[in-house]
Structures are given as structure tokens and as C-alpha cells.
Amino acid sequence: MTTAFDPIDLAGTLLPNRIVMAPMTRSRAYGPGLTPTASTATYYAQRASAGLIVTEGIQPSPGGQGYPDTPGLHSPEQVAAWRTVTDAVHARDGRIFAQLMHTGRIGHPSLLPGDLVPVGASPVAAKGSVYTAEGPKEFVVPRELDEDGIRQIVDEHVAAARNALAAGFDGVEVHGANGYLVHQFLAPNSNVRTDAWGGDAERRARLAVELVAAVAAEIGPERTGLRISPGNPLGDIEEPEPDATYLALLRGLEPVGPAYLHVVEGPDRALTLELRKRFGGVFLLNARTQGRPSGPEELALVEDGTADMISYGALFLANPDLPRRLRAGGPFNTPDRATYYGGTDRGYTDYPELDA
Ligand SMILES: Cc1cc2nc3c(=O)[nH]c(=O)nc-3n(C[C@H](O)[C@H](O)[C@H](O)COP(=O)(O)O)c2cc1C
């Protein structure tokens, strides 16, 4: 029987186990120019025993930033700073992919430089509010991307993927989940376009397909992954019939052949299994757990074949040596929500290892 502690071949790279550190925004890019810091390098290096680390969401361009103090991957200074992070992870025999996250309408003009405004598939504001330096603010109506604007978004992701390799990353994960820009194109309530980028499932899936294809053409499909969250209502997304959309997406991705698909599971396990059946690459699952973080229970999903790899968010945040602790059956440090976003090294680099 295959277990989560067995190695796996990720499109030509051998990973020592099937436990993934899930992408987690930490809002600590305090360096001038939104660069990761020395603490960031320590934080990821501490977690290098993961089969694969996926970084926090990184904006591919200044306009893609939706939260304070999130790092970018669009300037030479950022590339140099990320190099210290990837070097630290590789020095401990880890592997690290950069998550490219463009937040689209989930943002605010006050978070963006100059006169940039949030963009989206359609001029439909998300219900709710965003955390800014001046406290919570209502989401605004995003500027609808025209054809040139969409091309620019694709180009920005390609450039950021190129920068990721220059910074020493092993690959990139395109963020198509959790209500951000790519998801805003996938979902029918945030994408009400009637052109070639909206309408039926194929058209709503087109941006995701073209983005992944363009990134894969630049850095290689073996270095390209995609994260999706079918039916996830985060960011005021409504997907009453996700099956058609996500099966169209997988059909579009067939000729591209990205290394992995990372599914944030929604209410429908049957859809998870269908996606797994139809996807040719490695299948990463962030399982639906309802009210508790993913834990040792989820290891069985590798054993029963539901997924090739399991990703852990909160538990990996709080347990730098998570694979070892999972193998031992615990104990686990408890994640401290108060230090998730921003702050000092407390709740960042000071979670102890098992025998520390
Ligand atoms: C502090 C924090 C920040 C997160 N930031 C991101 C992010 O930047 N990108 C992303 O795709 N998911 C993000 N997530 C979601 C996680 O990747 C994961 O899907 C979620 O925590 C559920 O998994 P878990 O039960 O193992 O924690 C974040 C989660 C947490 C706890």
C-alpha cells in the first residue's frame, strides 16, 4: 500500500514524501519593495522536510496585490530576495514552488501603487470587505479587463514565472482558487462576459487554460502546477454547477500537461474523484475537513488512492517538522490565529520542533 511517507515522482523530480506545505499568505514582506526577509528564509527552511513547499501567494505584478505586505516577484530586488529563500530551502534538501496569486477584484485601490485599481472579469463587486492599512473597506467594482488587459495579465504571469526560475524556485503554482482573479473568470457570478472569455464553461475556463499554457511554455509543464477550488464560496464566488466548468478546464489542460493539480476540496467528494480520474499528472488534495485543520486523518486519502499528495495549511504553519510529527502520530503545536497575518517572528519562526 502506498502511504504519504512514500516518495513520488513529480514530473521528473523525486519528492521524498507526499506531504505538501499548502500556500499561506503571512503578510510579512516588510523589505523595501515588498521583498521577503531573512525571517522568510528561516520560516521556509524550517519546513524543508515537506515533500513540496508551495509559498504564500506572490503577486506577479503590482496590480495583483490584494493584501498588505504581501511579496512580489516582478522586480530584480524581489528576485534577489527570493533567491535567499530558495537557497535556504535547497540547503536543507527541500523543494519549493512559488504560488502566483493575482487577487483581481479582491483588493482595494488603497493597497495599489499610483492610480492602479483592482481588475476583474466583469464589473461586479464582491460582497464583503478587505483589510487595508486604514482598516476594513468595502470591495470596489473592478475594472473589467479588455482583450489587451487579459493579454497583459497572461504576460505578467509568464514574466513572474521566468523570475521564479531566476530566483531559484523549482516551479510555480498558478492560483486559480479561493475567489481570486483566475477563479473570478471561472465562476458565473463574477464573470458575466459575453465575449470569448465568458459565457459557457469553456469560455470561463479559457483564462485558466491560457495562463497555465503560457507559463508551461515558458518554464516547462514539469515545473507548472495549478490550484483550483471548485464550489468554494470564498471571495463571494457562486458556482452552482462546478462540474461542467472544471471538467472543461481539465479538457483544455490536456495538451498542456502541467505537473500537478492542487484541489481545495469543496462539498462534493464525487467531483474530487472525477477530477482525479481525468487529470493525467500528480493530484494534490487539500481535503475538506469542516471546522478543523487537515490532520493525521487525511493521510488515509493517499492510502485509499483519493489523492497522490495531501497538503497541510494551518498544521504546517505551526509545525515546522510536520512530516515527522505525522509519522509519529503527533503531538502537534496549535496554530495561533492572532499571528497568521503580519507581525513579528512570533508565530512565524518560533514554533518548536518535536525534540527542541
Ligand atoms: C494563514 C493562512 C493563509 C493562507 N493563504 C493562502 C494563500 O496565499 N494562497 C492559497 O491558495 N491558500 C491560502 N490559504 C489556504 C490554505 O492553503 C489551505 O487551503 C487552508 O488552510 C485549508 O487547509 P488546512 O485545513 O490544512 O489548514 C491560507 C490559509 C491560512 C491558514
From TrEMBL:
GO CC terms of this entry: cytosol
Any Pfam family hit: Oxidored_FMN
Coiled coil: none
Record's keyword annotation contains Oxidoreductase: yes
Listed cofactors: FMN
Residue ranges occupied by any NADH:flavin oxidoreductase/NADH oxidase N-terminal domain in the UniProt entry: 5-329
Region (Disordered): 337-356
InterPro entries, sorted: Aldolase_TIM, OxRdtase_FMN_N, Oye-like
Single GO term (MF): FMN binding
Domain of life: Bacteria
Keywords: Oxidoreductase
PANTHER family: NADH OXIDOREDUCTASE-RELATED, NADPH DEHYDROGENASE 2-RELATED
Protein family: Belongs to the NADH:flavin oxidoreductase/NADH oxidase family.
Record protein name field: N-ethylmaleimide reductase
Origin species: Actinacidiphila guanduensis
Lineage: Bacteria, Bacillati, Actinomycetota, Actinomycetes, Kitasatosporales
